[in-house]
Amino acid sequence: MPHRFRLPLRAPKEGQDSFFLWSMVILPIVADGSYIFDAYYYLFHDAHIHRYQGLISTILVVFTYLRYCVPIASHRILAGYYILLCLLTETGTIGYLIVYCKKQNYIDIMIYSGWAVLELITTCFLIYYRVYCHCQPNFHVESKHLFHFISRLEVILAIFIPFFISNTSPVLTKHSIAFFLLFEFFSDSYCRFQGFWIKSNLYIFVCAVTVCVATEWIYANEHKEVYEVLSSVFELISAVLCNTLIILQFSPYHFKPLSLSKIARKRRRIQQTNDKETRIEMGTDTELEDEKFNRDTH
What we know:
Radius of gyration: 25 Å
Structural class: mainly alpha
Low-confidence stretches: 7-12
Distance between the termini: 85 Å
Keywords: Membrane, Transmembrane, Transmembrane helix
Strand content: under 5%
Shape: globular
Mean pLDDT: 79
Largest sheet: none
Number of strands: 0
Transmembrane segments: 20-43, 49-66, 78-99, 111-133, 145-165, 202-220, 232-255
């Protein structure tokens, strides 16, 4: 069955073995399952002192954003896969909404309602581009990227885990760690970006993530509710920008074809080589003129 999950990509497949392909299918489901677990753990274990909430889903949430390149060739299976992920995510979000409805926390109700709407819109766009338009992703993910995400998560979580354990206020699923990994991954393809919208989207995305993390740490020290609200709002804005960037990459108007990028790089290398040879020739001619001048003088 692995051939059913292999994408008909034109890009090289050196880093896309069967294990990697199955991992890209399974990991988003596991990530959404952890999101449901964390949401309903918070619903049924809401204690005064919070030792754990949202840690597992915070670790795995990055893989939910990689669903855009899931290697499923069958369009019917792909559509069903995206609908399944949407239902799983919405199930977890409903769990958080129930919690805040009980607490009558209207700000968080609006924020998580925004997450629910964003999930629906993103799923519709993914189905439209991947299933209906048969578009292939331009942000290519290979096994080296997967291991890079995991290695970076180890370093980042070494900082965040004490914050989760020692914090006395609820620390729920956080997407900011995933955003740090993703904008580094997206920026590797910046040379292929074309047009104002996709480039400006990346810059605003980076700024929004920075503000989100900054206000989150200020809240951890100051314990003022305004910083918690700002962090949650900017986290949602960052998610909107991240998903917008993922959708924009399907359009040929925002992404240069890979072949043109290779031609441009080849031209730059040739130009650099020619410039180097020209400088060497000019230096040689200057040395010869100096030597001739010295002979004439003597």
